[in-house]
Amino acid sequence: QVGLLRHSHKHFELPSGYYGLESILLLLAFMALGRVKSIEALRYCAPGEWGKLLGLDRIPEVRTLRNKIKHLTQTDAPTQWSADLCADWMAAEGAALFYVDGHVRVYSGDKALLPRHFVARQKLCLRASADYWVNALGGQPFFVVHQDVDPHLIQVLQGQIIPRLLEEVPNQPTPEQLAESPLLHRFTVVFDREGYSPQLLADLKQQRI
Q1: Over the chain, what HEC string results?
Q2: Torsion, CA 203, CA 205, CA 207, CA 209, rounded to 10
Q3: Contact 137/97 with Cβ under 8 angstroms?
Q4: What does the pLDDT read at residue 171?
Q5: Residue-level pLDDT, tens digit, the chain, 209 residues
Q6: How far apart are CA 74 and CA 99, in angstroms?
Q7: Cα–Cα distance between 86 and 142 in angstroms, integer?
Q8: CA–CA separation, 80 vs 76, rounded Å?
C-alpha cells in the first residue's frame, strides 16, 4: 500500500537463495512495526511465528540477515531507493506543505567525539547527532537528513532540505505562472523557532517559498 516493494528490484539485487529480496524487506518492516530495535533481538523471537508473516516456515537466522543487509548496503542504493519512494509519497499526497523537525540521537559509542546537544528527555547535555525529518502536515514522513556534526537547522535548511525540495516537490508552478502572480508560491515550509533568521526568511521569499 505504501510502495515498500515498488522500486526495490530497480535498486537492489540479492544472490539466489531461500530468502529473496521481498522477504528481507518485509521482515525489516515488520521488525520496525513490532518495535524490535535490533537484528540481535530477533534471537529472542519465535522464528516460526514470524515466518508465517512472510509466508515461509521461518525467518532467517541473525547471521544470515546480517549478511543479506551487508550485501544490500554496499552501495548508495538505499539512498536512491529512499528518494524514489519519497517522490511517490509526495505525488500521492499532493504535497505542498512540509513540516521540518529536528530530533537528537544520543551517541553512546567511543569511536567519535561528537558535539554535545541538550537532550530534553534527560535534561542533560550529551554527545549526540541530529536527524532532521521532513514530514507532511499530518506527520507522514517524506525523508530524513542525518547530521553527525550538527550545523543547526538554518544551515541544514539552506544547504540540504530546500535544494532537495525544489528539485523533488511535484506540481510546482512554472516560471511563467510565478511571473504572472507575485503572490503565488512554490510550496510552504513550516519549522520551529530554531530556524528563525531574517536572512533565511528573505532568501525563502526570494525563491518564492
Answers
A1: CCCCCCCHHHHCCCCCCCCCHHHHHHHHHHHHHCCCCCCHHHHHCCHHHHHHHHCCCCCCCHHHHHHHHHHHCCCCHHHHHHHHHHHHHHHHHCCCEEEEEEEEEECCCCCCCCCEEEECCCCEEEEEEEEEEEECCCCCEEEEEEECCCCCHHHHHHHHHHHHHHHHCCCCCCHHHHHHCCCCCCCEEECCHHHCCHHHHHHHHHCCC
A2: 120
A3: yes
A4: 85
A5: 778 888 888 999 988 889 999 999 999 999 999 999 899 999 999 999 999 989 999 999 999 999 999 999 988 888 888 888 888 888 877 778 899 988 888 877 776 677 777 777 777 787 778 889 998 877 788 888 888 777 889 999 999 999 999 988 888 899 999 999 999 999 999 999 989 999 999 999 999 99
A6: 31
A7: 5
A8: 7
> Cell 546537544 identifies what position?
117
Residue labelled with grid coordinates 539485487? 13
Residue count of the chain: 209
Residue entry with cell 540540504:
160
